[in-house]
Specification:
Layout: H1 8-39, H2 41-70, H3 96-120
Protein name: DNA-binding transcriptional regulator of glucitol operon
GO molecular function, one term: DNA binding
Transmembrane segments: 12-32, 44-62
């Protein structure tokens, strides 16, 4: 279960999140030093906001990891219930002109599928 989080993609994500989390604290400290040197209210607010951004990003990342652990690893694989092709139903109860047009489209579809299947063999 936890081995899914040790793939190269996930390891890179772990490292990226760790680096960005630490970087937000350095940015907050930088803004704090600017504020202490007379930077004003904007620098004081940014000194508080940067660490909050770091915790917010960490919170979203933890949620993403939890969703990955809950996800069924085989849900992306096609199953037996997957319908690859279904013949279009032609409505013949309404307008005869529309029914003729739908029949024409169905015929074109059958020809296109016939050419694709003969190329694939």
């Amino acid at each position: 279960m936890w081995t899914r989080l040790l793939t190269p993609r996930w390891v890179l994500l772990h490292l990226l999140v760790a680096v960005l989390f630490v970087a937000t604290f350095f940015l907050g400290y930088w803004q704090l030093t600017k504020a202490e040197n007379g930077g004003g209210a904007v620098n004081w607010s940014y000194a508080l906001q940067w660490p909050l951004y770091g915790f917010m990003g960490l919170w979203f990342y933890v949620r993403m990891v939890r969703e990955e652990l809950r996800r069924d690893p085989d849900e992306d694989a096609p199953g037996n219930s997957l319908v690859l092709y279904q013949r279009p139903r032609i409505d013949t109860t309404g307008d005869p002109e529309l029914a003729a047009y739908n029949a024409y489209l169905a015929e074109l579809n059958e020809r296109a599928l016939g050419q694709e299947s003969s190329r694939g063999r």
